[in-house]
């Protein structure tokens, strides 16, 4: 539409009198026809999404701050976090897996979960990644989901803190701590896969690893 206006203004400058009116009408009709043709290419579902009014209480689209600082003072200054099912799954995972970590350590564990979502080797949603294997005692991907103990949020302040990290990661905070890691373990254990996967980082109490990409030959 801006293109249309630019052309119209140019024509107004160049043309005068009745001839200008005729030229403007012809050109404007042609340009509007082009705009209508272009709009037809956009899928109906996408057009509905673009033109629909925001739902009552809907969260505005935001992006994470560009100046991420991995310290508690900075995190405490961030707004209270909330979200849907994916946010809740990520926040709970960070609570049970990393609430005793530094802010940097909490972000690092969150990176692994999102890296798995992006990987073709794992499910394509946060909740599915976290609950993969749940239901079989100690056969899941994240131990807290299959250790037989109730998943109780007993430290609300810690949950508020990890919830903010979850929100920041979902809003696009850079994943710059673990170099694409898909696995981690505490320094107290030594799982067999840690001898086969390249270690990418050590943050706080955890070592981080990246699962090698599978090829047709292996």
Q: What are the salient characteristics of this protein?
A:
single chain, 218 residues, mainly alpha, 2 domains, 3-stranded antiparallel beta sheet, 8 helices, 3 strands, 46% helix, elongated, disordered N terminus
Count of strand segments: 3
Strand content range: 5-15%
Helix content: 40-55%
| Alpha-beta classification | mainly alpha
Largest sheet: 3 strands, antiparallel
Overall shape: it is elongated
Low-confidence stretches: 1-9, 11-15, 41-60
Order of helices and strands: HHHHHHHHEEE
Give Rg in angstroms: 26 Å
The order of strands across the largest sheet is 1-3-2
Write the layout of secondary structure elements.
Elements: H1 2-14, H2 17-41, H3 44-51, H4 72-76, H5 85-98, H6 103-118, H7 126-130, H8 156-170, E1 183-186, E2 199-203, E3 206-209
Antiparallel strand pairs: 1-3, 2-3
């Amino acid at each position: 539409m801006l293109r249309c206006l630019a052309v119209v203004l140019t024509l107004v400058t160049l043309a005068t009198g009745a001839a200008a009116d005729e030229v403007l009408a012809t050109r404007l009709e042609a340009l509007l026809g082009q705009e209508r043709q272009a709009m037809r290419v956009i899928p109906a579902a996408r057009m509905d999404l673009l033109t629909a009014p925001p739902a009552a209480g809907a969260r505005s689209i935001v992006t994470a701050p560009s100046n991420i600082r991995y310290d508690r003072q900075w995190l405490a200054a961030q707004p209270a976090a909330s979200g849907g099912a994916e946010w809740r799954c990520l926040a709970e995972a960070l609570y049970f897996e990393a609430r005793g970590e530094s802010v940097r350590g909490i972000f690092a564990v969150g990176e692994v979960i999102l890296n798995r979502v992006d990987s073709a080797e794992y499910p394509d949603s946060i909740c599915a990644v976290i609950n993969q294997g749940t239901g079989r005692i100690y056969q899941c991907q994240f131990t807290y989901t299959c250790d037989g103990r109730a998943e109780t949020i007993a430290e609300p302040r810690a949950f508020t803190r990890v919830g903010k990290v979850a929100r920041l990661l979902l809003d696009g905070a850079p994943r710059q701590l673990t170099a694409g890691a898909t696995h981690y373990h505490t320094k107290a254990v030594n799982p067999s896969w840690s001898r086969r996967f390249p270690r990418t980082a050590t943050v706080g109490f955890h070592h981080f690893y990246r699962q090698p990409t599978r090829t047709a030959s292996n």
